[in-house]
């Protein structure tokens, strides 16, 4: 039986630059940074202090996860800015927006009211975009028609 999600991959163009962005700019913690196996694949994960059971692995497109042609496609999608890393939740979207903007984080839009809460959208140093969301109080019903 599946118990939950513990690691999710975010594709990045440069692991050192991504490590700096995710820790120094977003404030996440390094969970693992090691070289594994033959070929020296770097396993780099980060996570939020208050969520120890979930990590983002920051991976460069390429072997052993994908062939060179697929890796080039992923790099092109990153460059276009069409890949999403997910939703980062906060209890103070306006304060975090100002703090992260002061740290040099690029935002695609400032906090805006949405049916599910208040959302700002940011982009990482590789082109991935993330929703920075302060959910509305109460239960979030994703089945509701928000149109």
Throw out a few tags for this protein.
147 residues, alpha/beta, four-stranded mixed sheet, 23% helix, globular
In short:
The chain has helices at residues 15-25, 68-80, 93-102; strands spanning 7-11, 29-36, 41-47, 55-59, 84-89, 106-114, 117-123, 129-135. It is α/β, with parallel strands linked by helices. The radius of gyration is 16 Å and the shape is globular.
Describe, in plain words, how this protein is organized in 3D.
With 147 residues, this protein is α/β, with parallel strands linked by helices. It has a single domain, classed as 2,3-Dihydroxybiphenyl 1,2-Dioxygenase, domain 1. It has 3 helices and 8 strands; from the N terminus they run βαβββαβαβββ. It has a 4-stranded mixed sheet with strand order 1-4-3-2. Strand 7 and strand 8 form a beta hairpin. The N and C termini lie far apart (35 Å).
Please give the structural blueprint.
Blueprint: E1 7-11, H1 15-25, E2 29-36, E3 41-47, E4 55-59, H2 68-80, E5 84-89, H3 93-102, E6 106-114, E7 117-123, E8 129-135
Parallel strand pairs: 1-4, 5-8
Antiparallel strand pairs: 2-3, 3-4, 6-7, 7-8
Structural class: alpha/beta
Query: Largest beta sheet: what is the strand line-up?
Result: 1-4-3-2
Radius of gyration: 16 Å
CATH topology: 2,3-Dihydroxybiphenyl 1,2-Dioxygenase, domain 1
Tell me, briefly, the overall form.
globular
The CATH architecture category equals Roll
Order of helices and strands: EHEEEHEHEEE
What count of helical segments does DSSP give? 3
Q: Report the uncertain regions.
A: none
Beta percentage is 35-45%
Strands, total number: 8
Give the C-level CATH assignment.
Answer: Alpha Beta
Largest sheet: 4 strands, mixed
Overall pLDDT level: 92
Work out the helicity level.
10-25%
**How many domains?**
1
- The end-to-end span amounts to 35 Å
Q: Tell me the CATH superfamily.
A: 2,3-Dihydroxybiphenyl 1,2-Dioxygenase, domain 1
